[in-house]
């Protein structure tokens, strides 16, 4: 929508991918002028929540935080792949080091372009936020 | 992660930083996790296509970012 010039005025999103990526390109408006105009009280937010949304070109505030994810995580794995490789499957008793070693075994048996894991943390421990795009100008 | 009085969070705790460092190392040091540039469509799509052996997801348990929701 951004590339096509049909971006919505307001976007709800997670703080892991689209928000920071497009923020550095100047897609999102600085929220402070509009907030000041409405005499919005920033004290209602946790400071750390606000800071996660300071993602603009000059670290300006590009979104208003709404919620944060702190839910439990689940590890999924391809049982057939592990069996075909002859590698033991993960358990909930593994330490970070043991899981890293297990994934290293898997990676060694994968073709180029394939990967043992997906732990893009930003996708899971993140803020939900509302941002205004240039279309709102 | 968030203190019982909801006045502080644990992002600066040593254990939290170690966990994030581990996540960073999985991508950049051990090369076990694709970078964003290496992700083909989505990691979930890669998992179903058989080019990703494991993936992590989360129950969307959410908390408010507002002191007074």
What features would you describe in this structure?
The complex is a heterodimer of chains A (137) and B (69). Chain A has 137 residues and is α+β, with helices and mostly antiparallel strands. Chain A folds into 2 domains: 10-71 and 122-136, no CATH class; 79-121, no CATH class. Chain A contains 5 helices and 4 strands; from the N terminus they run βαααββααβ. The model of chain A has no long low-confidence stretch (mean pLDDT 84). With 69 residues, chain B is an alpha+beta fold. Chain B has a domain at 34-58. Chain B has helices at residues 14-28, 43-49; strands at residues 54-58, 62-64. The A-B interface holds A 17, 43-46, 48-50, 65-78, 81-82, 90, 96, 100, 103-104, 106-107, 110, 113-121, 124, 127-129 and B 1-2, 6, 9, 11, 19-20, 22-23, 26-27, 30-34, 36, 38, 40, 43, 46-47, 50-68.
SSE blueprint:
The complex is a heterodimer of chains A (137) and B (69).
Chain A: E1 10-14, H1 18-23, H2 31-37, H3 47-51, E2 64-69, E3 73-77, H4 79-85, H5 96-108, E4 127-132
Antiparallel strand pairs in A: 1-4, 2-4
Chain B: H1 14-28, H2 43-49, E1 54-58, E2 62-64
């Amino acid at each position: 929508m951004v590339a096509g010039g049909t971006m919505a005025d307001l976007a709800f999103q997670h703080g892991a991918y689209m928000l920071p990526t497009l923020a550095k390109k100047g897609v999102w408006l600085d929220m402070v002028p509009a907030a000041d105009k409405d005499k919005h009280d920033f004290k209602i937010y946790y400071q750390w929540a606000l800071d996660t949304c300071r993602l603009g070109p000059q670290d300006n505030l590009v979104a208003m935080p709404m919620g944060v994810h702190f839910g439990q995580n689940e590890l999924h794995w391809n049982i057939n792949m592990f069996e075909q490789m002859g590698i033991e499957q993960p358990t909930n008793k593994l330490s970070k080091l043991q899981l890293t070693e297990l994934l290293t075994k898997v990676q060694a048996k994968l073709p180029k372009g394939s990967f043992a894991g997906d732990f893009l943390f930003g996708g899971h421990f993140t803020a939900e936020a509302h941002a205004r795009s240039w279309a709102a100008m | 992660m968030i203190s019982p009085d909801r006045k502080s969070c644990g992002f600066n705790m040593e254990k939290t930083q170690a966990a994030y460092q581990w996540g960073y190392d999985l991508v950049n040091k051990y090369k076990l996790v694709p970078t964003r540039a290496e992700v083909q469509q989505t990691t979930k799509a890669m998992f179903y296509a058989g080019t990703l052996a494991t993936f992590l997801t989360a129950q969307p348990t959410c908390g408010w970012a507002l002191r007074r929701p």
